[in-house]
C-alpha cells in the first residue's frame, strides 16, 4: 500500500498555485482528497482554482464541502460568497459574507463585498423601475442598454441589465464580458475574472474578453497569466492595437524594456494616431535614458491629443530630467490634471488667488502648501525665505510628520498640518510651483546650504543617546515606502549595503520601518545600530542625521533631509533616476555637498556600492 504524504502534497500544491500553475496545483490537491475526502484546505484550494478558471458552480461545491469539514473556515465562507455572486444568487452571498463577519468581525474585504451584495439585492427604485420596463426586451436590447449605462459611468445599473440579458440568453458571451467590465469598475476583480472566463468559455475567439482579462490580471499582479491573455487577444485579432499597447505596459512593468518598446511600435503600426501608445513609447525610452527619442514621442502624443494630461506630465518630467527647466516647469503644471497622481489629496489648487512671478507680495499673507511626498516638501521648502523676502507673510501647510522640524524654518510665520484649520490668507501656491515662479534653472537653483535645523532639545537628547563618538559616523538608509510607484527601482536591501560595514566606522540606521528580510539581516548585523520606534517624527531623524559625519541613502525623504541639513550625502540612484537628479552628473545643484552614485546598468547595485565603498575608504 502506497502512503500519501498529505503535508508535502499540500505544500507543493500551494507553491504551484502561487507560481500560476493551476493544473499542477489541482493535481496535487486532487491527490489529497482522494486519500482524505474531507481535507478542508485541499477542498478550499480546489474551489479557488475552479473559481479562477471560470467555473463558479464547481467552486461552490468545493467551498460547501470545505465548510462541511470545517464550519469556521473563514476563507471558504468568503470565497463561497464570491462564487454565489457570480452565479447571481445574491441573497445567499449576503448570508455567506455575514457568516464571515460573525467569525472575523475585522475582515474589511468581506464587509466591502457585503455592501456591494446588499446594494445589488436592494437596487435603487430607479433601477428597479428600469428593469421592470425592460422585462419584455430582448437579450440584445438589455445588453445594449447596459453598455450605454457603462459608458455613462453607471456600473451598478449596467450590471443589472447585463444580468437581465443573461437571464434571457445565458450563453451570450458579450454580456458576460461586459459584466466583467462592470465588476472591475465596482472593485470586484475576482468576479470580473470569472465573468471574462465565462465569456471566453462560450466564445473563445472573443478578443475583447481576452484583452479585458489581461488588464484585470495585470492589476492583480498575475503577470504571466496577463501576458498570456494579451497574447491570445492578439492571436485572435492580429491588428489589436490596444492589446499591443497594454502588453507593452506589462513588459515595461517587468523591466523588459526592449520588448515593451517593440510592443508600442506594433501598436502604432496598426494605429499611427494612437496618442496613448506614443506617450507610453516615450515612457519606455525615458526608462532607457534615451531622452531625445522619448521627448519626440511625447511631442507626437501632444500633437494628436493636446489635452492628454498624463502625457503632458510625462513630457514635463522628461524635460526636467534633461535639464530643460524653462520648458519643464511650465509643463509641470499639467500634474494637477493627471488623475493618476492625486496630488494634495486629489484637491485642485485655487487659480484665482494663485501666486505668480509678477504678483506684488508686499504686506500680503501667502499660503504655501505641500502637495506630494515628504522628500518633495523638504526639497522645496527652501523657497519659503524667498517668498518672505518679497514682503509676504508666509503660512506653511505640510505633512504632520514634518511639523516639529519646520516650525522654525526661516521666513515662516506659522506652520500647519493638512488637518489644521487655516487662518485667512490672500494668495496661495503649491510648493512645487515655486521654481516656475522664481524662473529656476540649473544655474540658479537656490542652494542656501543648511536651511533646516533640528530642534536643540532633540539634538541634545540624541547626542546623549549615542554617547561619545568612537570614530567616523555613517548613517544608512536603504529603502523607502513600498507604496512609492518607483520603489522597486530605488530601494535595496540591507544585505546589499553590508560591504560598507567592513569600513572602519560606526554605522547607524536612519530609517524607522523595516521589511521582513531586512529585519533578519539586522538581527545578524550587530555593527549597525537601529533605533526603530525611538524615531517618533522627522525632528528625531534630523537630530540623528545631524550627528553623522556622512549619510548614505537611496532616493528617499531622508536623502533630502540630510541635504537640507547640509550634511555630506551619497545618494544611490537607479539607472533611470527621478527627474530632479538629471542625468550623467555626479553632483546636484539642489544640495552642494551631495554626491550622486548612479547605476550604469539597470539593476546593478553591486558595482555602485563597491565604488562608494572605495570612496568612503579614502575618506
Question: How does this structure look, described?
Answer:
- The chain is of the alpha/beta class and 619 residues long.
- The protein folds into four domains: 6-121, Tetratricopeptide repeat domain (Serine Threonine Protein Phosphatase 5, Tetratricopeptide repeat), CATH 1.25.40; 239-341, Serine Threonine Protein Phosphatase 5, Tetratricopeptide repeat, CATH 1.25.40.10; 345-437, 3-Layer(aba) Sandwich (Rossmann fold), CATH 3.40.50; 456-618, 3-Layer(aba) Sandwich (Rossmann fold), CATH 3.40.50.
- Helix content is 55%, strand content 8%.
- The chain is built from 31 helices and ten strands.
- The strands form two sheets. The protein has a six-stranded parallel β-sheet with strand order 7-6-5-8-9-10, sandwiched between helices.
- Helix 30 (557-564) links the parallel strand 8 (550-554) and strand 9 (569-573).
- Helix 16 runs antiparallel to helix 17 (275-287).
- The longest helix is centred in the N-terminal third of the chain and has 14 residues, at 22-35.
- The radius of gyration is 28 Å and the shape is globular.
- It starts with 5 loop residues before the first helix and ends with a helix.
- The mean pLDDT is 92.
Amino acid at each position: 500500500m502506497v502512503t500519501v504524504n498529505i503535508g508535502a502534497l499540500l505544500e507543493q500544491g500551494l507553491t504551484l498555485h502561487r507560481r500560476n500553475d493551476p493544473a499542477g496545483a489541482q493535481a496535487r490537491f486532487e491527490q489529497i482528497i482522494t486519500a482524505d475526502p474531507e481535507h478542508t484546505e485541499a477542498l478550499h484550494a480546489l474551489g479557488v482554482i475552479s473559481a479562477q478558471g471560470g467555473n463558479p458552480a464547481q467552486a461552490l461545491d468545493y467551498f460547501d464541502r470545505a465548510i462541511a469539514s470545517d464550519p469556521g473556515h473563514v476563507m471558504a465562507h468568503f470565497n463561497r460568497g464570491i462564487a454565489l455572486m457570480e452565479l447571481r444568487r445574491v441573497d445567499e452571498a449576503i448570508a455567506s459574507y455575514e457568516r464571515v463577519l460573525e467569525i472575523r468581525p475585522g475582515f474589511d474585504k468581506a464587509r466591502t463585498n457585503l455592501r456591494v451584495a446588499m446594494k445589488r439585492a436592494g437596487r435603487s427604485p430607479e433601477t428597479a423601475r428600469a428593469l421592470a420596463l425592460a422585462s419584455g426586451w430582448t437579450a440584445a436590447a438589455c445588453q445594449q442598454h447596459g453598455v450605454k449605462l457603462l459608458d455613462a459611468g453607471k456600473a451598478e445599473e449596467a450590471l443589472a441589465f447585463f444580468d437581465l440579458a443573461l437571464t434571457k440568453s445565458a450563453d451570450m458571451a458579450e454580456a458576460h464580458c461586459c459584466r466583467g467590465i462592470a465588476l472591475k469598475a465596482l472593485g470586484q476583480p475576482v468576479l470580473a475574472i470569472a465573468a471574462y472566463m465565462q465569456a471566453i468559455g462560450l466564445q473563445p475567439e472573443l478578443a475583447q474578453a481576452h484583452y479585458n482579462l489581461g488588464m484585470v490580471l495585470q492589476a492583480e499582479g498575475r503577470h504571466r497569466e496577463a501576458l498570456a491573455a494579451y497574447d491570445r487577444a492578439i492571436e485572435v485579432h492580429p491588428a489589436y492595437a490596444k492589446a499591443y499597447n497594454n502588453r507593452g505596459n506589462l513588459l515595461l512593468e517587468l523591466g523588459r524594456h526592449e520588448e515593451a518598446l517593440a510592443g508600442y511600435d506594433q501598436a502604432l503600426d496598426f494605429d499611427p494616431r494612437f496618442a496613448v501608445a506614443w506617450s507610453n513609447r516615450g515612457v519606455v525610452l525615458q526608462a532607457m535614458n534615451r531622452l531625445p527619442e522619448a521627448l519626440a514621442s511625447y511631442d507626437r502624443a501632444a500633437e494628436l491629443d493636446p489635452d492628454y494630461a498624463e502625457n503632458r506630465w510625462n513630457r514635463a518630467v522628461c524635460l526636467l530630467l534633461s535639464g530643460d527647466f524653462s520648458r519643464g516647469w511650465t509643463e509641470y503644471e499639467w500634474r494637477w490634471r493627471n488623475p493618476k497622481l492625486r496630488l494634495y489629496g486629489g484637491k485642485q489648487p485655487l487659480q484665482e488667488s494663485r501666486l505668480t512671478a509678477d504678483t506684488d507680495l508686499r504686506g500680503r499673507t501667502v499660503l504655501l502648501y505641500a502637495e506630494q511626498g515628504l522628500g518633495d516638501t523638504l526639497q522645496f521648502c527652501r523657497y519659503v525665505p524667498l517668498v518672505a523676502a518679497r514682503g509676504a507673510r508666509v503660512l506653511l501647510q505640510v505633512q504632520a510628520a514634518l511639523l516639529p522640524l519646520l516650525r522654525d524654518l526661516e521666513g515662516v510665520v506659522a506652520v500647519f498640518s493638512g488637518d489644521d484649520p487655516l487662518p485667512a490668507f490672500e494668495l496661495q501656491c503649491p510648493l512645487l510651483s515655486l521654481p516656475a515662479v522664481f524662473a529656476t534653472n540649473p544655474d540658479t537653483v537656490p542652494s542656501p546650504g543648511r536651511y533646516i535645523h533640528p530642534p536643540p532639545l532633540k539634538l541634545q537628547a540624541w547626542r546623549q543617546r549615542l554617547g561619545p563618538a568612537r570614530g567616523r559616523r555613517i548613517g544608512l538608509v536603504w529603502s523607502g515606502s513600498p507604496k512609492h510607484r518607483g520603489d522597486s527601482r530605488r530601494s535595496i536591501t540591507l544585505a546589499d549595503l553590508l560591504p560598507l560595514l567592513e569600513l572602519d566606522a560606526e554605522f547607524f540606521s536612519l530609517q524607522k520601518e523595516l521589511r521582513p528580510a531586512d529585519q533578519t539581516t539586522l538581527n545578524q548585523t550587530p555593527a549597525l545600530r537601529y533605533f526603530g520606534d525611538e524615531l517618533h517624527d522627522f525632528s528625531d531623524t534630523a537630530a540623528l542625521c545631524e550627528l553623522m559625519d556622512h549619510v548614505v541613502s537611496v532616493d528617499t525623504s531622508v536623502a533630502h533631509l540630510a541635504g537640507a541639513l547640509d550634511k555630506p550625502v551619497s545618494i544611490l540612484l537607479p539607472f533611470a533616476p527621478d527627474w530632479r537628479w538629471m542625468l550623467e552628473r555626479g553632483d546636484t545643484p539642489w544640495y552642494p555637498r551631495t554626491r550622486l552614485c548612479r547605476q550604469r546598468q539597470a539593476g546593478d547595485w553591486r558595482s555602485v556600492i563597491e565604488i562608494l565603498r572605495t570612496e568612503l575608504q579614502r575618506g
